[in-house]
Design goal:
Layout: H1 3-7, E1 22-28, E2 31-36, E3 39-40, E4 43-54, E5 57-69, H2 72-90
Antiparallel strand pairs: 1-2, 2-4, 3-4, 4-5
Length: about 100
């Protein structure tokens, strides 16, 4: 996809949060943490999603960090660990 297509929205709608390729999953303190694929060139970038049902509504929080890895297993383990850290620090406030 060219620069101008990305800049002006070309390709939008092709991928949603629910279509992410999931590398790993964990339940922690009532939250669901998902390690998701995010490519940056030829490397995997640390990314994930934290979900929790609150008052009958599924809330979701996406996080991306600068860390990059060559293998999926490395990024999956660290994304789950980072998700637990975010939950410990912020709890349900991440959804506000």
């Amino acid at each position: 996809m060219g620069f101008w297509q990305r800049l002006f929205g070309g390709g939008l709608g092709k991928s949603t949060a629910h279509e992410d390729e999931i590398l790993g999953e964990d339940s922690y303190k009532g939250f669901r943490i998902l390690a998701v694929v995010m490519m940056n060139g030829a490397e995997y970038q640390l990314a994930g999603r934290i979900e929790k049902e609150i008052a009958g509504e599924m809330k979701s929080y996406r996080f991306v960090r600068a860390d990059r890895f060559s293998g999926k297993s490395d990024v999956a383990a660290l994304a789950l660990s980072k998700g637990r850290q975010i939950i410990d620090e912020q709890g349900e406030r991440i959804f506000s």
